[in-house]
Amino acid sequence: MNVSVIIPFLNASKHLPDCLQALAQQTYKKYELILVDNGSTDSSNLIVRNFISAHPEMRILLLEENTPGASAARNLGASAANGKWLIFTDADCIPDPNWLLDLTREMEGDKKIGALAGCIRPVPSEKVVAKFLGLFTLPSNNEESLHCHFRLVEGGFPTANMAVRRDLFNRIGGFDDSIPIYGEDYDLCAKIYDRGYCIKTLTNAVVLHNHRSDIRGLIRQSYSFGKAHALCLHRCVPGAIVCQVPMINFVRISAGARLWLDCNQADKKMLVTILAGVLWTPLFTLAFAYFVYLSVRIFRRAQQVGTHVGSLESTLHAGLMLLKSASMTLGRVFGSIRYRVFCI
Known about the structure:
By secondary structure, the protein is an alpha/beta fold. It has 2 domains: 3-211, Spore Coat Polysaccharide Biosynthesis Protein SpsA, Chain A (Alpha-Beta Complex); 216-343, no CATH class. It is built from 11 helices and 13 strands.
């Protein structure tokens, strides 16, 4: 087999059938599929077994990994792989029929390219939370580009759509299974760069991603993203000073301080307007004005990407933006305490 597709899953019965059906419809056929059950208690394992029985023409391997976390599951899948390239996606993703064909066309190019980052787009949804996350989480690649350094604010890519040379993956030790989820993908990218390789982003090789559709899922994911930022600041760079404020994006990666201050997030801007109102009551109107501005910005963002968002819905999205950014800030605070960095 030329390539190996590796998918970890845990209680994924809701989305796994669509993912598997999309893999069965790939135009590129010379691949093996390795599915790793990470302790499912729903019908996911049965769904996979039925799929294997229904597709005897496909080379499919079902493994079980008892160590919790996608990192351990992906590593087990990689250890059983035969392909020269390991291709990772998730059970809540739906690959385009030409996904593997687009990826394999890039694999015989520059030998310094150690990994490929395909394009991730949201599954269309009419649910408010899922539509919002589709606009502002896992953004699509707008252009092909080559990245050879990890700089915290750039150079990291999610494993929802990533291909890595198998020999390189083995040399860097795969995923760090001490990071069960959130941050393990950026850690992998940093290790690829440390070995002198680059990562190429693609505008094709598309997978559609099912975003969370409930408030609790949004909060948990955003909080975990924030903790992952502190983790990356702690272990993925020798040191860094990152300062992001309106119209200024200062990044210096060098040994020494570990500081990441991001004042561009909506919760921090709203906090400034509220504090201004505390100092002088008439300035509370700034908070209202900023909320209106945020709603209009989200409405225009949706228009740019071809997503229909009504005026009332954009107001709801503005509230979700404040909730998302506040949850991420909270994750950064707790991550800073845990990893002894300053990440706000």
